[in-house]
Prior knowledge:
alpha/beta; Rossmann fold; 3 domains; single chain; elongated
Amino acid sequence: MESRREVMDKIFHPKSVAVVGASREKKKPGHLLLYSLVRMGFPKHGALYPINPRADEILGLRAHKSLKDINGNADVVIITTPPETVPQVVEECAERGVVACVILSAGFGESGSEAGRQLEAEILRLARRGGVRLIGPNCMGIYCSAGRLGFFPDQRAGDDVRRSEGKLLNGDKVSFISESGSIACMFYRICRSLNVGVSKIVSSGNECDLNAADFLHYFGEDPATEIIAAYLEGIRDGKRFLKVARAVARRKPVIIWMAGITSQGSRAAKSHTGALSTKESVWNAVCRQTGIIHVNNIEELMDMVLAFYFLNPPKGRNVAVVSSPGGPAVSAADACARHGLQLASLSEKTKERIMKRIPNFGTSVRNPVDLGFGAVEDGTYETALSALFDDENVDAIIAIGGAPTFVGKSFLKVEEFAEEAAAAWRRTTVAGDTDDNAAASGGKNGKKPLLAVLPPHISSEMPFEILRAAGIPVYATPDRAARCLSALCSYAILKAQSETKCPS
């Protein structure tokens, strides 16, 4: 009998996939799924079987009348047919030795009807009797960069993106669990736009069989996954989830957006995936006990993913803030205090280096470092950041862009700010670091974390692109940057405590 890990490996890296309900009609989900797999290049990776009794060929692939007509076996079967047909397909899968079914079809427990609940119970009974694992029903499917699986046409393998666009700086190392298919699609698109490489995504739907705890456990052991994120609407097996989350969160950051924790959200969750939602007070307690990083929306989720993807945790909570605009610098100081960070005491050497570059009026070399009109001169931000990187009293830096001028490549010289921040970041290493070490650690170089803040209303995307290409996460406000930096610090403490208790 195959172990849970072996089953999961076959689900994310199948040698063959069948799509039951594959269609020539572009509006049908069976066409969408098949087209997505073709776009991902799965036929080059393994065998792909469209199943449609009324078609001979779909998207250049030979169509089969049923699973029984396949010359060989399918590891994974994707089902897109009406709900009443699903039990028969699951039975055929059991007869053919299929490892897992991904059931996109809706109309099961989430419908709230007795007929829907009974139908869901029936397919689970048939699957367990035949040794088949189920994902869904009412889901979108699986994305795996290395396995070349996709469930939406814009999804591509990370290697293909790197070759064509030069993006995904630190590799495909984020994996995502989502009970919502639409949020699973959204997560991939946002990650791609932010230069973040995704390893795996599972849209788990109603989770009548495999659930969030199963995928969390697998991603916790998966060497290709370094960061785990999730969108959940409830927890199926609370006791097991708590145990798994506690173990995994001590090895890898686990970032979860738990929806449906209010009374109104709970009603919506029941009609969406049939989830039994968790009360907010209970969920907050779960996060405290396990080390889960809790977020409340897609913006907070992506903020945290960015921080953990691009940055190493700092050695401490002493932060330097550098800014040309004065108001944001003050708000950054407040944000640091709110999130348990301290403003670092800068060394005299650091202050002297910065003072040589800025006017002695309207500026300050205390922390926050207020560059004022000094930021109008090229090289000021780069000098200040280089000095802060060299200061042993500074564990991390929040740099707020902008200069009081309209003379520059872009308004407020934000493009120059990005270029200077990237230059200082690239030049910075820690003692004993080498280019080879940097490559081995995904380009992070063990550097002090640098988080950039730029207002979202800037007309040009160029400053954002420059910073992301250098591996510097960008935030819309100092508060969002400080919250993520604090999470990095807390995770570092949690991991260190775990390693102390359980030495390797």
